[in-house]
């Protein structure tokens, strides 16, 4: 990929694609950002461009409005927070490629910043019709002299502001994307061993590709979250009313057999924290071999958490994606917290794979600096580790 140093930005307008897709709570003008990690992750590139003499037109998305203007998905609160972090005004255009954007860009002074409204308010952004995406990209490109891609969380999408806009202008990758790719290369090309992967989250189907592609590269694979119950079911165990993907059971059986043949250590929980319903109440710990028929598993048990932590701390490289349980419920957050703590004690490279995992470690009181790296893009990270080509990276070559 082309790096920032390959382009001269002085006196130029830069179309900067960021990932500012942060969680919000509340309604209307009372909405507040609950985790500004992705905004902070964009600051190194923004500051580098400003120091290089550029003015910025920032394009970003929030949620999935599917081509509709949804007030709860406006980037207005993000513009305010970005201005606070930078210590300077960030002008906000109330549309993406309309009259407000035209006016804001026309008024942009040297060293200034304009944040365009949610690019996904435009149906063309995510259209499957390439000509529609190209038309939108052409308009976005008219706002700038060069393009910088730094929204790693969107590089696995062939969207107008991610792919076609990059091809429409001289382009380079921002500091965040460069850092993300460097870490992912270390995970796939030359990891220091022992190498462990810890996977959680709700669906095993979301992680099958990663497991398949990494299985012959890792020494240890630990499985938690809702997906673990498909693994238990594949072993013929009773899982009560726990989440299960029956269609994935044959695939899981094949993966377990392949892991055994490769000598990969697969850790599955030996105890489970269960409850009679999906609610933050009535927790109890049972054996993973005999979950009662009227109970659902909502976290790995304390014995399992200790075993996972011990295995993690033996590794020199660890990639973690997906909580171990329903960490949003206090009764079912312990497994995730124990795993997160173990990652902070890894003597080599520990990588938190974005998405819910990144949100979990911050919600549970950890700081980003306690980990080797926290990715901003869960889906993008997983697709990279699956070996897929990511359109947003292809466009930055």
Distance between the termini: 4 Å
Strand content: 15-25%
Total of helices: 14
Radius of gyration: 22 Å
Morphology:
elongated
Q: Give the helix level as a range of percent.
A: 25-40%
The largest sheet, given as strand count, sense and whether it forms a barrel, is: 6 strands, parallel
What's the arrangement of strands in the largest beta sheet?
Answer: 5-6-4-1-7-8
Integer average pLDDT: 95
Helix/strand layout:
Layout lengths: L12 E5 L6 E2 L6 E2 L3 H15 L3 E5 L16 H11 L4 E2 L6 H8 L6 E3 L14 H12 L4 E4 L10 H8 L3 E3 L1 H14 L6 E5 L8 H7 L5 E4 L4 H7 L14 H14 L2 E3 L3 E5 L8 E4 L8 E5 L1 H12 L3 E5 L12 H11 L4 E4 L2 H9 L9 E2 L3 H8 L5 H4 L3
Parallel strand pairs: 1-4, 1-7, 4-6, 5-6, 7-8, 9-10, 9-15, 10-11, 15-16, 16-17
Antiparallel strand pairs: 2-3, 12-13, 12-14
Helix pairs in contact: 1-2, 4-5, 8-9, 10-11
Explain the overall architecture.
This protein is an alpha/beta fold. The chain is 35% helix and 16% strand. The protein has 14 helices and 17 strands. The longest helix is centred in the N-terminal third of the chain and has 15 residues. The model has no long low-confidence stretch (mean pLDDT 95).
